[in-house]
Amino acid sequence: MTLNEVVKILNADILVGQDQMEMEIKTAFGADLMSDVLAFAKSGSLLLTGLTNPQVIRTADILDIAAIIMVRGKKPAPETIRLAEELGIPILSTKFILFETAGRLYEKGIRGCIERVDNNFARP
Amino acid sequence: MHVHEKPIFESSYTVQGGNFDEAGKVASQIKVSLKKLGLQTVVIRKAALVAYESEINIVSYARKGTINVSITPKQIKIETIDEGQGIPDISLAMQEGYSTASAKIREMGFGAGMGLCNIKKFSDQFQITSEIGKGTYLKMIINIENGA
After folding, report:
1. Which end of chain A is flanked by fewer CB atoms within 10 Å, N or C?
2. What pLDDT, on a 0 to 100 scale, did the predictor assign at position A117?
3. B9-143: CATH topology
């Protein structure tokens, strides 16, 4: 689906990237722990998160995340907006909680970057 | 172990400890350079991730640090040398979930004891040494051949 459809499904505000709403999305990852995002999220996915600091944008940039959805009505700080504009990463804001956001997108065909984590991390 | 091939790219970056606003900037710059070299996406992702988690560690725990990147046709070498408190027990620090992170670090979405695990997981070779009161040295190799 396109980001435009995501905006409608989530009744979201477009905070950054008004001109990128035709972008096609198939997958998403949701977490507030950026180390988990780095470990598991795939490029071209949506990132659903409750964090609003600039590190969310940095993390998205490192992974080539398509767009960020800030859940629970969170609004990012001005420096976060500035960085997203600089790096060309769209930010949407929705009032739905993370669970509802994920559920509504899944219902319309968006799938997780991975389904489950089978092999636990490199323990020595 | 040592590949004495001529680097096609070399660069060194300074990271200021405690400067949370800028954390990740160096990793972004490294990623741009890797893209310009036309490396495989999977290799770029691994290297950028390793650089980013290492940079977060310097910002979070050290006074200052240096990130050196050296790339040959066969591999990417990323080294980080920091001036900081050092790690008293490396095997403990390498355990997933173990963390000494401050509230500030956790607010950024890090500090859950995953950083070093991620760095090790996404590196083809990983080396860590540390001296209390002096600092920590990390060396990560990411293979370009067989990069997947």
Report:
1. C
2. 87
3. Heat Shock Protein 90 (3.30.565)
Confidence of residue A123 (pLDDT cuts 50, 70, 90): very low
Angle at A62 between CA A59 and CA A66, to 5 degrees: 80
Q: What local confidence, expressed as pLDDT, does residue B6 receive?
A: 87
Which residues are bridge partners to B83 per DSSP? B64
Judge contact between A20 and A104, C-beta under 8 A: no
Interface mutation target, options A29, A33, A36, A38, chain B, most CBs of B under 10 Å: A38
Burial of B48 (0-12, 13-18, 19+ CB in 10 A): buried
pLDDT in tens, B103-114: 989 989 999 889
Cα B73 from Cα B66, distance rounded (Å): 23
User: What are the structural domain ranges in chain B?
Assistant: 9-143
pLDDT tens sequence across B91-148: 999 998 999 999 989 989 999 889 999 999 999 999 999 999 999 999 999 999 754 4
Could you tell me which residues come within 8 angstroms of residue A31 by beta carbon, excluding any fewer than 6 positions away?
A: A37, A40, A41, A48, A49
d(CA A5, CA B81): 46
Identify the domain containing residue A96 by its residue range. 3-112
Q: Is A119 among the domain residues? A: no
Query: What is the value of ipTM here, to two decimals?
Result: 0.86
Q: Are A53 and B121 in contact (CB < 8 Å)?
A: no
Whole-angstrom distance, CA of residue B80 vs CA of residue B94: 16
CB contact under 8 A, A122 and B121: yes
Number of domains in chain A: 1
User: Domain containing A54 — which CATH number?
Assistant: 3.40.1390.20
Whether the Cβ atoms of residue A80 and residue A93 lie closer than 8 Å to each other: no
> Cβ contact (<8 Å) for B49 and A79?
no
